[in-house]
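Weekly puzzle thread! Below is a chain. First person to post its structure in token form gets bragging rights.
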Amino acid sequence: MSCILTFRSTPEASDNMKLRILGNAIRLRLTRSEVERIAAGESVEETTQLSISTNFGYSLQPSSGTHLAASVSGNHLAVSAPTTALTTWATGDAVALDCPIAGDGPDILVEKDFACLAPREGSDDEDTFPHPESGQRSC
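Winning reply:
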């Protein structure tokens, strides 16, 4: 199986990679600078402080494999994706990368983060991609 490049829009934005987990699905949404790092073959990592003594980290890592995969070690979720698929996604116009999953793992989607269509308090759109529907509708 090969990876699928999805051309669709998503309205939310932030200045750091976002992680969403719903049921058996994982979604990572990356800013422009993070997508540039992926295009250069680098990993992207984010950390959330859960308490004074506990952090939870998550990352997207290029791999030599042919499938998306997720693994957990301690307090870190690592998502790996084929380097060639990540590079094609990061350097092209596709919004999302959806590859076959290794084994019985969760559904994994990697997306580019778009600026919100309407300003929101606490939202920083500085490092996001221009929204493809900007000027056509609002949030």
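Puzzle host: Confirmed. Bonus trivia for everyone else. The radius of gyration is 15 Å.
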